[in-house]
Design brief:
Layout (H helix, E strand, L loop, with lengths): L1 E3 L3 H12 L8 E5 L6 H11 L3 E4 L9 H14 L4 E3 L6 E2 L3 H13 L6 E10 L5 E3 L2 H4 L12 H4 L8 E4 H7 L9 H12 L1 E13 L21 H25 L9 H9 L7 H10 L7 H13 L6
Helix pairs in contact: 1-2, 7-8, 9-10, 11-12
Length: about 325
């Protein structure tokens, strides 16, 4: 699934890298979000020359949004009966064996019982000219990807990069439709895989993750927010908003999937308590962090989390 929006500058390199895959039995479904540049012409040209490439017509009834764009694609591929789904950004370049490698891991992970599962891999971070910025996205971001044995790790911080992930149909049966309260589609799917299926990380770097001025999210170094030349105050307020959004997402996840949870599990307890952090007292927040395994993968992140719990006003105050 390829979501596009004003991506003409790099789009052809991406699609060419898909056509060059060693695994050739695939369908590429593209949905454009109302581009005003040359994107629509490019994707239509490709679809006319390769019967494996399909273009969805933009309905024009919403503002451009990566979440809505991928949600639209997911609904369509599910309706078409897709068994395995790969997520694709418009400005990256895939290694030729990405599909082959990931399909092997995906099929092994789901097993003969076809468990709901999601896998994701590492990336090489590059600039506009595909020159290496960081050899490993995981190291750059100081991530320590976990599996489904500690799914509560995923509640407060997404560890899955959308363009590096793939999932099976069994997971989509659980995850769809994606809530409008989801922060992003990849985070929502990761939560579903962590709580109700299998989640695994593949250390191979299988695509070039291009950074440029128009990235919707992009890769900023773990230490970026500590740069003395950044606006710390604005960054802190943005972090507060991101935290509140994560609580709203967790609440929607809990409420829409309530019948699927093991209510007595540590993971559900952590989720349930996290949903109440915005209205909880500062003391209750710190108790929740200590009791429920919500700590992140780096000391600095944990310090920031504690500070945020102490400084963010409680809505019950």
């Amino acid at each position: 699934m390829l979501a596009t929006f004003n991506g003409a500058d790099f789009l052809e390199e991406q699609i060419d890298s898909l056509i060059a895959q060693t695994e050739t039995q695939w369908t590429l479904l593209i949905h454009d979000d109302g581009s005003s540049d040359d994107t629509v012409r490019i994707i239509n040209d490709y679809s006319q020359n390769d019967e494996r490439i399909q273009v969805l017509v933009h309905a024009g009834d919403s503002s451009p949004s990566a979440l809505v764009n991928f949600s639209t694609l997911l609904a369509n591929v599910f309706e078409q009966g897709a068994e395995y789904v790969f997520f694709c950004d418009q400005d990256d370049v895939w290694d030729a064996d990405k599909l082959t490698v990931m399909l092997e891991h995906l099929r092994h992970l789901e097993g003969t019982e076809t468990h709901p599962c999601l896998i994701h891999h590492d990336l090489e971070v590059v600039n506009e000219s595909l020159e290496t910025i960081a050899g490993s996205f995981i190291r750059l971001m100081q991530l320590q990807p976990s599996d489904e044995h500690k799914p509560q790790r995923l509640i407060s911080r997404n560890e899955v990069t959308g363009c590096a992930m793939a999932c099976n149909r069994a997971l989509l049966e659980i995850a769809l439709p994606i809530s409008g309260q989801a922060v992003m589609h990849d985070w929502w799917l990761a939560l579903c895989a962590g709580y109700f299926g299998r989640l695994a990380f593949v250390p191979d770097k299988l695509l070039k993750y291009r950074q440029h001025g128009e990235n919707a999210i992009g890769a900023k170094s773990f230490w970026y927010a500590l740069n003395p030349f950044t606006n710390w105050v604005a960054g802190w307020h943005r972090g507060d908003k991101d935290f509140v959004k994560s609580v709203e997402q967790a609440t929607a996840f809990r409420d829409t999937k309530i019948d699927r949870f093991d209510k007595g599990s540590e993971a559900f307890t952590a989720l349930d308590l996290y949903c109440g952090l915005v209205t909880a007292t500062r003391r209750q927040r710190l108790k929740t962090l200590r009791q429920c395994g919500l700590w992140r993968s780096h000391l600095v992140l944990n310090i920031v989390m504690v500070m945020r719990m102490l400084l963010l006003p409680s809505k019950s105050d």
